[in-house]
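Input.
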Amino acid sequence: MTDFTYNVAMIEDEKPFDMGQVNTKDVPEEALETYTEMLSQLLQQEDPSKHYAGFGFEGAEKLAFSALPITEHDQIGAGMVYNPDDNGENLVLIGRVFFSIKDRAVSFNMETNADDVLVQGDIDLRGFIQSFIVCFMAAWVSLNQNNLPSES
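Output.
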């Protein structure tokens, strides 16, 4: 597994809050394989409406994400959505995440209604967001391992 450390920041009201560092080697092998395969398949889709995949975690069936490459071998964006009807017709945007290999950084911006959508009674889906981010970045690094920046 690739040893790649990066910083994570949450953006709220246009202000970044440092969430610390993460290393891709801390992601379980099974999760890395699953996300690498999902991300690879998403990026091969030509129809933008098919650029969504489920989070892949038990209990997170109503969460999905999109993937949009920004800069080859470096930046990619993801939109996180909530699917209340399980049919994909009424997706609710809950946040956007930007991943940069060159900058060794991930920033995510939650929508103002995200907590209302993710926390309903006894169900709290917020923990899945962090898991998604670290699995997605590990997959993105894996797909671009031949183009990683050297240690500074």
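The chain is about 25% helix and 35% strand.
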